[in-house]
């Protein structure tokens, strides 16, 4: 995909070597020179395929001197590609892309807001915008980092909350609004997307229903670029070069573990609004 200008940038980052992640929110990282620090991990999922002990990671120092954990884990270098593990970046980058009219698959948005209450199940939408005709556009964002073969999959664990969000988006379409689900593929080594069908078949079914009902399914490719500065610190940028194709599981180059011999289906490009 062609290079695009960055939408977000983080500077003053510290590099290190990941030693372990534990209790979901904690990661021990060895900094250059030997000291080991405990960094905050915002990703509550399994983080399968995102890291292994010994990988290079980038940490963001906290500006708050009173904070107990002085660093937040932003990214990991895995098999030659950067993987973004700070889940909050997904919502921030997508919202900024919408404000700049640079969100793949959803051109022409305005009046962008975040974290708005909506729906029959008392949810909060990640991004709410309007299109050129004044219609509301509800955008749910899912950070997507599980790698299977050459593709990315979501979720990496059973997600009842994710299924609820799909039902809420379908409800908005029935009310005459527009709705989209952005899978924020925050790793540079994926060339396609699918639901993690063996991990959460119920979610995969809800995703198919949402697409059939008119919810736009947008697997967005994320380009993470890291640069080491002379100071020893690092800079990390996020850009969105385009969409990945949604390819059914048994069309992927290395399928998820599961029953063999299922009928093949044809891949198709993401639904766009």
Shape: globular
The mean pLDDT is: 91
Number of helices: 3
CATH class of the largest domain: Alpha Beta
Radius of gyration from the alpha-carbon trace, in angstroms: 19 Å
Q: Let me know the largest β-sheet.
A: 12 strands, mixed
> Which parts are unreliable, with pLDDT below 50 for 5 consecutive residues or more?
251-273
* Structure summary, number of beta strands: 15
How far apart the termini lie comes to 21 Å
The secondary-structure class comes to: mainly beta
| Total individual domains | 2
- CATH arch. level architecture of the largest domain: 3-Layer(aba) Sandwich
Helix content estimate: 10-25%
Tell me what portion of residues adopts beta-strand conformation: 35-45%
Give the SSE order as H and E letters. EEEEEEHEEEEEHEEHEE
Written description of the protein model:
- With 273 residues, this protein is mainly beta.
- It folds into 2 domains: 8-84, OB fold (Dihydrolipoamide Acetyltransferase, E2P) (Beta Barrel); 88-251, Trna Endonuclease, Chain: A, domain 1.
- 14% of the residues lie in helices and 40% in strands.
- It contains 3 helices and 15 strands.
- The protein has helices at 88-99, 160-174, 201-212, and strands spanning 8-22, 26-30, 36-40, 56-61, 71-78, 81-84, 110-118, 123-130, 136-144, 146-148, 151-154, 178-185, 193-195, 216-228, 234-243.
- The strands form 2 sheets. Strands 1, 2, 3, 4, 5, 6, 7, 8, 9, 12, 14 and 15 form a 12-stranded mixed sheet that branches. A 3-stranded mixed sheet has the order 10-11-13.
- Strand 14 and strand 15 (234-243) form a beta hairpin.
- Helix 2 runs parallel beside helix 3 (201-212).
- The radius of gyration is 19 Å and the shape is globular.
């Amino acid at each position: 995909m062609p290079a695009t200008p960055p939408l977000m940038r983080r500077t003053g980052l510290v590099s290190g070597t990941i030693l372990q992640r534990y209790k979901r929110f904690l990661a021990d990282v060895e900094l250059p020179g030997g000291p080991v620090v405990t960094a905050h991990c915002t990703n509550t999922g399994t983080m399968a395929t995102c890291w292994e002990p010994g990988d290079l990671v980038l940490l963001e120092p906290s500006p708050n001197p009173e904070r107990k954990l002085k660093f937040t884990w932003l990214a990991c270098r895995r098999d030659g590609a950067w993987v973004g593990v700070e889940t909050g970046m997904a919502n921030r980058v997508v919202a900024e892309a919408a404000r700049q009219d640079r969100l793949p698959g959803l051109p022409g948005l305005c009046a962008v807001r975040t974290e708005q209450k909506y729906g029959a199940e008392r949810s909060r939408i990640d991004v709410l915008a309007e299109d050129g005709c004044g219609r509301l556009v509800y955008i749910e964002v899912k950070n997507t980092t599980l790698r299977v073969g050459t593709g990315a999959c979501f979720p990496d664990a059973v997600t009842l909350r994710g299924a609820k969000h799909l039902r809420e988006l379908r409800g908005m379409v029935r009310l005459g609004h527009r709705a989209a689900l952005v899978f924020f593929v925050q790793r540079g080594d994926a060339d396609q997307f699918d639901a993690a069908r063996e991990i959460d078949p119920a979610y995969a079914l809800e995703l198919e229903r949402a697409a059939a009902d008119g919810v736009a399914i947008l697997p967005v490719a994320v380009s993470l670029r890291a640069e080491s500065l002379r100071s020893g610190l690092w800079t990390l940028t996020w850009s969105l070069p385009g969409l990945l194709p949604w390819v059914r599981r048994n069309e992927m180059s290395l399928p998820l573990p599961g029953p063999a011999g299922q009928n093949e289906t044809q891949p198709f490009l993401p639904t766009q609004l």
